[in-house]
Amino acid sequence: MTASGPTIKLSAPATGEFWEIPVLFEDDHLLALAKPARLLSSPDRYDATRPNLMRLLHEAVAAGKPWARERELTYLANAHRLDFETTGVFLLAKNREALVVLANDFGSGTPKKTYLALVEGSPPEEHFSVDVKLAQDELHPGRMRWTRDGKKSLTHFEVVERFAGVSLLSCHPVTGRTHQIRVHLKYAGHSIYGDEIYGRAMQLWLSSIKPGYRLKPGAFERPLTPSLALHAWKLELPHPITKIPIHVEAPLPRDLQVALKYLRKYAPAPSTPGRPLAFPPEPDVED
Q1: Helix (DSSP H) and strand (DSSP E) numbers for the chain
Q2: Full-model pTM
Q3: Is 98 part of any domain?
Q4: Total domain count for the chain?
């Protein structure tokens, strides 16, 4: 299910950052949030001082912030992780009982996860899979690489929408390795826009797709993909307590909505199979 309305306000005084995070789903046992871009979901193993969502949540609960006090929260634990740059559905357990079940489910691959990625190029097939083992890159801490000696990693992909030299893909990871979708797409030759680690910091620019593009005097061009164009769009799984199937969906972040609007207007593919996904109304933007 999707929801719009309540938000959770978090801040990191040390860095001056502030986030207003939408609540996507909530009941007595679960809380699903729409994680923003460029915020760690859990503490960084290499730099413990960086702000992360779990620490901010725990500090807010301990401080008795209004949103936590209203919910009578004393416990929050994340059932999975999202990359620093990735946006979308982030699921938390409100009690130990729910966490134990969720940990087992995620460990066995029970939840169905659907991501959206805006990538370079156009895959020749509508559906394809990457079954390539992954391991930590010893020469570059924090990065992954494909190798025969790594852990089994499998991702299924589907073309959602094609543009001129750009594609929107839905990504369905069967396993849950670090950076799995990003590395598998790089392996397939379709790196994600805005990926500073695996995509050569490749950006999508309006000037590259709009004929006759001109900047106003003194202005500078901002990329359409200022962050990683990877979004945790849907999460489907049995409720850990009631066992009733639940479906949580996160609206696309504004940057990705704007990029898609411009691509549809200025870079349509000669023939696009299917039809665009039914996203929320596109934002009004100036050319």
Answers
A1: 5, 13
A2: 0.90
A3: yes
A4: 1
